[in-house]
């Protein structure tokens, strides 16, 4: 529970900082009304309804936070009922995975999307329809912890199979493909495939050289990159700047892509270093 609390605290501080900056910019520029935002502070903006268009990245953050808020108390409750942690964790993961899938099936039977936008808004971005995605990660952690031998066995074959499935799983290309698979089962196939990629990646402990250092750094700042890259950097900084320049369209595209990467990496590094890591270190000092 201590590790969970630390993870949640490290996530919340940069999230709230970026959210406040986003609210300031989007409301001052008259892009979205202020009344859209209160739900974002308690991750209810897409709990069982369509996510607002403002600060679009937040839909997945809500799914992640509700994963912590739901799964951890259930595990603790099962342990309080004298269930061993090994059984409690797996029971929680499988129960919530099946419950989410069944609810998504029920949702699909009552609301079948008639456009790709409806599919994305009503199925792709709603918390109660996507909680199962993170349960596969919970199953993976359980497997790796309790059965490390079978976890890494045939890891290369698992990795290849997982990568093939991940790159084969494209979304629906047209309204005609909005069937039961894309409405219900598609969302479980992707995290399941990612789960089978992890045994090989989990054995990659160190890597020397520039490439290894770059991958390690990006993995550390990836959460901050996600918070910043679209609504703030792309929409509020890169697009207005690039569009104001008298350049050919292809140069604008190249410049925009370059600026997006550079600004995202720089600002995400600062956010991770001075907010995310600061909160983690502060918590350690308070516990000492």
Q: Classify the secondary structure makeup into a structural class.
A: mainly alpha
Number of E-type strands: 0
Helix segment count? 11
Q: What global shape is seen?
A: globular
Q: What is the typical, i.e. mean, pLDDT?
A: 89
The portion of residues forming beta strands comes to under 5%
Give the low-pLDDT segments.
none
The value of Rg in angstroms is 21 Å
End-to-end Cα distance, whole Å, is: 17 Å
The major β-sheet equals: none
Order of helices and strands: HHHHHHHHHHH
Describe the model:
Helices cover 76% and strands 0% of the residues. It is mainly alpha-helical.
Kindly summarize this structure in a few lines.
With about 290 residues, the chain is mainly alpha-helical. It has helices at about 1-30, 60-80, 85-110, 115-125, 125-130, 130-145, 150, 155-170, 180-200, 210-245, 250-285. Helix 3 packs antiparallel against helix 9.
